[in-house]
Protein backbone atom coordinates (compact mmCIF):
# COMPACT_ATOMS: atom_id res chain seq x y z
CA UNK A 1 0.00 0.00 0.00
CA UNK A 2 1.34 3.41 -0.92
CA UNK A 3 2.11 5.74 1.97
CA UNK A 4 1.91 8.82 -0.25
CA UNK A 5 -1.03 11.05 0.60
CA UNK A 6 -3.53 11.13 -2.24
CA UNK A 7 -4.88 14.49 -3.34
CA UNK A 8 -8.50 14.61 -4.38
CA UNK A 9 -9.24 16.75 -7.42
CA UNK A 10 -12.93 17.24 -6.66
CA UNK A 11 -14.89 18.52 -3.65
CA UNK A 12 -17.54 16.54 -1.80
CA UNK A 13 -20.14 18.17 -4.04
CA UNK A 14 -18.35 17.19 -7.22
CA UNK A 15 -16.77 20.54 -8.06
CA UNK A 16 -13.25 20.53 -9.48
CA UNK A 17 -10.66 21.78 -6.99
CA UNK A 18 -8.19 22.52 -9.78
CA UNK A 19 -8.73 23.68 -13.35
CA UNK A 20 -8.69 20.36 -15.30
CA UNK A 21 -7.60 22.05 -18.54
CA UNK A 22 -4.87 24.35 -17.22
CA UNK A 23 -1.85 22.07 -17.67
CA UNK A 24 -3.05 20.95 -21.09
CA UNK A 25 -3.34 24.58 -22.18
CA UNK A 26 0.19 25.35 -20.96
CA UNK A 27 1.59 22.41 -22.93
CA UNK A 28 -0.43 23.38 -26.01
CA UNK A 29 1.14 26.85 -25.89
CA UNK A 30 4.43 25.37 -27.12
CA UNK A 31 4.87 26.89 -30.57
CA UNK A 32 4.92 25.06 -33.92
CA UNK A 33 8.59 25.83 -34.58
CA UNK A 34 9.71 23.89 -31.51
CA UNK A 35 11.65 20.78 -32.51
CA UNK A 36 9.99 17.41 -31.67
CA UNK A 37 12.42 16.37 -28.93
CA UNK A 38 12.21 19.71 -27.12
CA UNK A 39 8.43 19.54 -27.39
CA UNK A 40 8.43 16.06 -25.86
CA UNK A 41 10.81 16.95 -23.03
CA UNK A 42 9.23 20.27 -22.09
CA UNK A 43 5.70 18.92 -22.35
CA UNK A 44 6.57 16.05 -20.04
CA UNK A 45 8.43 18.36 -17.64
CA UNK A 46 5.48 20.76 -17.42
CA UNK A 47 3.08 17.86 -16.83
CA UNK A 48 5.20 16.35 -14.04
CA UNK A 49 5.90 19.69 -12.34
CA UNK A 50 2.22 20.59 -12.30
CA UNK A 51 1.28 17.12 -11.05
CA UNK A 52 3.94 17.38 -8.32
CA UNK A 53 2.53 20.73 -7.15
CA UNK A 54 -1.04 19.42 -7.02
CA UNK A 55 -0.24 16.04 -5.46
CA UNK A 56 1.72 17.69 -2.66
CA UNK A 57 -0.48 20.81 -2.46
CA UNK A 58 2.61 22.97 -2.73
CA UNK A 59 2.35 26.17 -0.71
CA UNK A 60 3.46 29.57 -1.96
CA UNK A 61 6.27 29.66 0.61
CA UNK A 62 7.48 26.21 -0.49
CA UNK A 63 7.38 27.22 -4.14
CA UNK A 64 9.38 30.39 -3.41
CA UNK A 65 11.90 28.35 -1.40
CA UNK A 66 12.39 26.16 -4.46
CA UNK A 67 12.77 29.17 -6.75
CA UNK A 68 15.35 30.72 -4.43
CA UNK A 69 17.19 27.39 -4.22
CA UNK A 70 17.48 27.28 -8.02
CA UNK A 71 18.63 30.92 -8.08
CA UNK A 72 21.32 30.14 -5.51
CA UNK A 73 22.62 27.27 -7.64
CA UNK A 74 23.22 29.70 -10.47
CA UNK A 75 24.64 32.44 -8.27
CA UNK A 76 27.30 30.23 -6.67
CA UNK A 77 28.35 28.51 -9.90
CA UNK A 78 31.53 29.63 -11.66
CA UNK A 79 33.61 28.30 -14.58
CA UNK A 80 35.32 25.97 -12.08
CA UNK A 81 32.32 25.23 -9.83
CA UNK A 82 29.35 23.48 -11.43
CA UNK A 83 26.82 23.50 -8.59
CA UNK A 84 23.93 22.49 -10.85
CA UNK A 85 25.81 19.34 -11.81
CA UNK A 86 26.55 18.64 -8.13
CA UNK A 87 22.91 19.02 -7.05
CA UNK A 88 21.88 16.75 -9.91
CA UNK A 89 24.31 14.13 -8.62
CA UNK A 90 23.07 14.43 -5.02
CA UNK A 91 19.54 13.75 -6.30
CA UNK A 92 20.77 10.68 -8.18
CA UNK A 93 19.66 12.12 -11.52
CA UNK A 94 22.97 11.74 -13.35
CA UNK A 95 23.15 8.08 -12.31
CA UNK A 96 19.64 7.51 -13.70
CA UNK A 97 20.55 9.18 -17.01
CA UNK A 98 23.76 7.15 -17.12
CA UNK A 99 21.80 3.93 -16.65
CA UNK A 100 19.40 4.88 -19.45
CA UNK A 101 22.21 5.83 -21.83
CA UNK A 102 24.42 2.77 -21.34
CA UNK A 103 22.45 -0.43 -21.50
CA UNK A 104 23.80 -3.17 -23.75
CA UNK A 105 24.14 -6.92 -23.60
CA UNK A 106 25.14 -9.51 -26.18
CA UNK A 107 22.92 -12.47 -27.00
CA UNK A 108 25.11 -14.57 -24.72
CA UNK A 109 24.54 -12.18 -21.81
CA UNK A 110 27.92 -10.48 -21.88
CA UNK A 111 28.24 -6.78 -21.11
CA UNK A 112 30.95 -4.15 -21.66
CA UNK A 113 32.66 -2.30 -18.85
CA UNK A 114 30.01 -0.62 -16.74
CA UNK A 115 29.61 3.11 -17.07
CA UNK A 116 29.36 5.56 -14.21
CA UNK A 117 28.68 9.26 -13.90
CA UNK A 118 30.95 11.86 -15.48
CA UNK A 119 30.86 14.17 -12.48
CA UNK A 120 31.68 17.89 -12.60
CA UNK A 121 35.48 17.63 -12.64
CA UNK A 122 36.31 16.34 -16.12
CA UNK A 123 38.38 18.67 -18.29
CA UNK A 124 38.67 18.64 -22.10
CA UNK A 125 42.17 20.08 -21.75
CA UNK A 126 43.98 17.05 -20.31
CA UNK A 127 47.14 16.46 -22.38
CA UNK A 128 48.27 13.23 -24.02
CA UNK A 129 51.13 11.66 -22.11
CA UNK A 130 53.67 9.04 -23.24
CA UNK A 131 52.67 5.44 -22.59
CA UNK A 132 56.12 4.16 -21.69
CA UNK A 133 56.71 5.18 -18.07
CA UNK A 134 54.00 7.82 -18.31
CA UNK A 135 52.48 9.37 -15.22
CA UNK A 136 49.63 11.70 -14.42
CA UNK A 137 51.48 12.76 -11.25
CA UNK A 138 52.98 16.05 -12.39
CA UNK A 139 53.67 17.58 -8.97
CA UNK A 140 55.65 16.14 -6.05
CA UNK A 141 53.85 13.18 -4.49
CA UNK A 142 51.61 14.68 -1.78
CA UNK A 143 51.82 13.68 1.85
CA UNK A 144 49.94 10.43 2.29
CA UNK A 145 49.93 9.72 -1.44
CA UNK A 146 50.52 6.14 -2.56
CA UNK A 147 51.90 5.88 -6.08
CA UNK A 148 50.23 3.12 -8.09
CA UNK A 149 51.09 1.50 -11.41
CA UNK A 150 47.74 1.12 -13.15
CA UNK A 151 47.66 -1.12 -16.20
CA UNK A 152 45.36 -3.29 -18.27
CA UNK A 153 44.08 -4.24 -21.70
CA UNK A 154 41.23 -2.76 -23.72
CA UNK A 155 39.35 -5.46 -25.65
CA UNK A 156 36.38 -5.91 -27.99
CA UNK A 157 33.22 -7.24 -26.33
CA UNK A 158 32.31 -9.41 -29.31
CA UNK A 159 35.62 -10.62 -30.78
CA UNK A 160 37.61 -10.53 -27.50
CA UNK A 161 40.51 -9.06 -29.49
CA UNK A 162 42.62 -6.20 -28.11
CA UNK A 163 41.85 -2.69 -29.31
CA UNK A 164 44.93 -0.67 -30.30
CA UNK A 165 44.89 3.13 -30.35
CA UNK A 166 42.08 3.42 -27.80
CA UNK A 167 42.25 6.62 -25.75
CA UNK A 168 42.25 6.21 -21.98
CA UNK A 169 41.47 9.58 -20.38
CA UNK A 170 42.07 9.56 -16.61
CA UNK A 171 41.57 12.11 -13.85
CA UNK A 172 41.51 11.96 -10.07
CA UNK A 173 41.67 14.04 -6.91
CA UNK A 174 44.90 14.39 -4.97
CA UNK A 175 45.52 12.93 -1.52
CA UNK A 176 43.83 15.97 0.03
CA UNK A 177 40.60 15.16 -1.82
CA UNK A 178 40.84 18.09 -4.25
CA UNK A 179 41.20 18.26 -8.03
CA UNK A 180 43.80 20.51 -9.65
CA UNK A 181 41.58 23.49 -10.35
CA UNK A 182 40.15 23.38 -6.81
CA UNK A 183 43.63 23.47 -5.33
CA UNK A 184 45.85 26.01 -7.16
CA UNK A 185 47.97 26.55 -4.03
CA UNK A 186 49.19 22.94 -4.12
CA UNK A 187 48.63 21.67 -7.67
CA UNK A 188 49.55 22.83 -11.15
CA UNK A 189 47.11 22.70 -14.06
CA UNK A 190 46.40 19.17 -15.29
CA UNK A 191 48.07 17.51 -12.33
CA UNK A 192 46.57 14.02 -11.95
CA UNK A 193 45.07 14.22 -15.42
CA UNK A 194 46.18 12.68 -18.68
CA UNK A 195 45.31 10.79 -21.84
CA UNK A 196 47.08 7.67 -23.06
CA UNK A 197 46.76 5.60 -26.24
CA UNK A 198 46.81 1.82 -26.02
CA UNK A 199 49.61 0.07 -27.89
CA UNK A 200 49.31 -2.55 -30.65
CA UNK A 201 48.32 -5.13 -28.02
CA UNK A 202 45.55 -2.94 -26.61
CA UNK A 203 47.57 -2.39 -23.45
CA UNK A 204 47.92 0.75 -21.35
CA UNK A 205 49.97 1.51 -18.25
CA UNK A 206 50.77 4.62 -16.26
CA UNK A 207 51.46 5.86 -12.75
CA UNK A 208 48.73 7.46 -10.67
CA UNK A 209 47.79 7.73 -7.00
CA UNK A 210 45.71 5.41 -4.87
CA UNK A 211 42.52 7.50 -4.72
CA UNK A 212 41.24 9.22 -1.59
CA UNK A 213 37.67 9.56 -0.32
CA UNK A 214 36.50 13.16 -0.11
CA UNK A 215 33.55 15.32 0.84
CA UNK A 216 31.51 17.24 -1.68
CA UNK A 217 31.67 20.98 -1.00
CA UNK A 218 28.93 21.73 1.52
CA UNK A 219 29.03 25.54 1.43
CA UNK A 220 26.38 25.79 -1.29
CA UNK A 221 22.95 24.47 -2.27
CA UNK A 222 24.17 20.87 -2.52
CA UNK A 223 25.26 21.05 1.11
CA UNK A 224 21.92 22.57 2.12
CA UNK A 225 20.12 19.74 0.34
CA UNK A 226 22.25 17.05 1.99
CA UNK A 227 21.60 18.55 5.43
CA UNK A 228 17.87 18.71 4.74
CA UNK A 229 17.88 15.03 3.76
CA UNK A 230 20.06 14.02 6.74
CA UNK A 231 22.78 12.60 4.49
CA UNK A 232 26.57 12.71 4.63
CA UNK A 233 28.53 14.44 1.81
CA UNK A 234 31.18 11.76 1.28
CA UNK A 235 32.22 10.18 -1.98
CA UNK A 236 34.19 6.93 -1.85
CA UNK A 237 37.74 7.07 -3.20
CA UNK A 238 37.68 6.73 -6.98
CA UNK A 239 39.55 7.18 -10.24
CA UNK A 240 37.73 8.56 -13.28
CA UNK A 241 38.18 6.97 -16.70
CA UNK A 242 36.87 7.83 -20.15
CA UNK A 243 37.75 5.25 -22.80
CA UNK A 244 37.14 5.78 -26.50
CA UNK A 245 37.96 4.56 -29.99
CA UNK A 246 36.28 5.70 -33.20
CA UNK A 247 34.85 2.23 -33.88
CA UNK A 248 33.49 1.67 -30.38
CA UNK A 249 30.93 3.10 -28.00
CA UNK A 250 32.83 5.28 -25.51
CA UNK A 251 32.62 4.47 -21.82
CA UNK A 252 32.88 6.94 -18.97
CA UNK A 253 33.32 5.26 -15.62
CA UNK A 254 34.84 5.32 -12.15
CA UNK A 255 36.66 2.60 -10.21
CA UNK A 256 36.67 2.24 -6.44
CA UNK A 257 39.03 0.54 -3.95
CA UNK A 258 37.34 -2.43 -2.31
CA UNK A 259 38.44 -1.24 1.14
CA UNK A 260 36.64 2.10 1.01
CA UNK A 261 34.07 2.62 3.80
CA UNK A 262 31.69 4.70 1.64
CA UNK A 263 31.03 2.19 -1.15
CA UNK A 264 27.48 1.46 0.04
CA UNK A 265 26.56 5.03 0.95
CA UNK A 266 28.14 7.02 -1.91
CA UNK A 267 26.38 10.37 -1.75
CA UNK A 268 25.93 10.49 -5.55
CA UNK A 269 24.85 6.83 -5.96
CA UNK A 270 27.50 6.03 -8.59
CA UNK A 271 29.07 2.79 -7.31
CA UNK A 272 28.42 -0.45 -9.22
CA UNK A 273 29.67 -3.85 -8.01
CA UNK A 274 31.89 -4.57 -11.02
CA UNK A 275 33.66 -1.22 -10.65
CA UNK A 276 35.10 -2.16 -7.25
CA UNK A 277 38.78 -3.12 -7.57
CA UNK A 278 41.65 -4.47 -5.47
CA UNK A 279 44.91 -2.59 -5.12
CA UNK A 280 47.84 -4.93 -4.46
CA UNK A 281 51.39 -4.35 -3.17
CA UNK A 282 53.94 -3.80 -5.93
CA UNK A 283 57.47 -5.09 -5.52
CA UNK A 284 60.64 -4.26 -7.41
CA UNK A 285 59.40 -0.91 -8.73
CA UNK A 286 61.12 2.13 -7.20
CA UNK A 287 58.39 4.39 -8.57
CA UNK A 288 55.33 2.69 -7.05
CA UNK A 289 54.22 0.83 -3.94
CA UNK A 290 50.86 -0.38 -5.29
CA UNK A 291 49.68 -2.22 -8.40
CA UNK A 292 46.27 -2.10 -10.04
CA UNK A 293 45.25 -4.19 -13.03
CA UNK A 294 42.04 -3.02 -14.66
CA UNK A 295 40.92 -4.47 -17.97
CA UNK A 296 38.37 -2.62 -20.07
CA UNK A 297 35.80 -4.02 -22.50
CA UNK A 298 34.26 -1.83 -25.22
CA UNK A 299 31.21 -2.57 -27.36
CA UNK A 300 31.37 -1.95 -31.12
CA UNK A 301 29.20 0.91 -32.34
CA UNK A 302 27.49 -1.56 -34.69
CA UNK A 303 26.17 -3.66 -31.79
CA UNK A 304 22.46 -3.05 -31.24
CA UNK A 305 20.75 -2.45 -27.92
CA UNK A 306 22.50 0.76 -27.00
CA UNK A 307 20.96 3.65 -25.16
CA UNK A 308 21.43 7.22 -26.33
CA UNK A 309 24.83 8.80 -26.00
CA UNK A 310 25.41 10.55 -22.69
CA UNK A 311 28.42 12.64 -23.64
CA UNK A 312 28.50 16.27 -22.59
CA UNK A 313 28.45 17.41 -26.22
CA UNK A 314 24.84 16.25 -26.62
CA UNK A 315 23.61 19.72 -25.68
CA UNK A 316 26.76 21.64 -26.47
CA UNK A 317 27.98 22.07 -22.90
CA UNK A 318 31.27 21.26 -21.24
CA UNK A 319 31.31 20.09 -17.61
CA UNK A 320 33.86 22.80 -16.83
CA UNK A 321 35.68 25.53 -18.72
General description of the model:
This protein is an alpha/beta fold. It has 2 domains: 37 residues; 233 residues, Protocatechuate 3,4-Dioxygenase, subunit A (Sandwich), CATH 2.60.130. The protein is built from 6 helices and 12 strands. Strands 1, 4, 10, 11 and 12 form a 5-stranded mixed sheet that branches. Strands 3-2-7-8-9 form a 5-stranded mixed sheet, with no helix packed on it. Strands 5-6 form a two-stranded antiparallel sheet. Helix 1 packs antiparallel against helix 2. It is globular and about 75 Å long.
Structural class: alpha/beta
| Poorly predicted segments | 1-6, 306-321
What's the total count of β strands? 12
Tally of helical runs: 6
Report Rg: 23 Å
Principal-axes shape call: globular
The domain count comes to: 2
CATH 2nd-level architecture of the largest domain:
Sandwich
Portion of residues in beta strands equals: 15-25%
Largest sheet: 5 strands, mixed
CATH topology group of the largest domain: Protocatechuate 3,4-Dioxygenase, subunit A
Q: How far is it from the N-terminal to the C-terminal residue, by CA?
A: 48 Å
Helicity level:
10-25%
Mean pLDDT: 91
Amino acid sequence: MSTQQETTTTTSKGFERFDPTFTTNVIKSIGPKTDPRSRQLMGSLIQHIHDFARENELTIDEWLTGVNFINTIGQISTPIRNEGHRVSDVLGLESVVDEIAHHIMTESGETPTSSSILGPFWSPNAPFRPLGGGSIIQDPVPEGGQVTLMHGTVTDLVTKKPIPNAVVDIWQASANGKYDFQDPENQTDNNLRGKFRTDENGEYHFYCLHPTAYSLPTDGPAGVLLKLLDRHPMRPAHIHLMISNEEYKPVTTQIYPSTDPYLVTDTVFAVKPDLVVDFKPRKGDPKATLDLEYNIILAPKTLKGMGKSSTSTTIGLEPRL
